[in-house]
Amino acid sequence: MAAPNSSSSPVDDPAVSGFVALMTISGQAQQLLKARMQDTTLAGLGPLHMHALCLCQQQPGAPQQALVQALGRDKGQMARLIRDLEDHGLLTRNTDERDRRVWRLYLTPEGAKRSAWFSALEAQVAQDLMGHLSPEDSEVVGRVLQSVQAKLDELNNSL
Fold first, then answer.
1. How far apart are CA 80 and CA 60, in angstroms?
2. pTM for the complete prediction?
3. What's the domain count of the chain?
4. Is 128 within a domain?
């Protein structure tokens, strides 16, 4: 890794300014999503809860570990999130028939309804934020973000 150039500011580095922009945009997008959720979601549940619910809808009966991997969170955080979803009557956890150490996750009917609502809300926010981009620009953004995600996965796997 090259040493930073002492004559220039770190923000002059395109990697640094791009990272700062990505973090800022991500935070602001989360805030927008949270604000739009305020009137219609259950108290105490945020976008991460709802995203987890959507993942469970896409993969009924997936093990709890699949959420840990898909969301990049630690086991403790995911256990609390799953407990919150259970407490709100949106998700059930059942032990695997073959391996009692594995928990399988299933949506309740109310969870399926909330998942559909959140998917529609997320799609609307995505359209509001990204809909002005040309198809070509959208593809470029997607490729760049996939590349960043792959590098992040690589770095996290090396920890």
1. 19
2. 0.80
3. 1
4. no
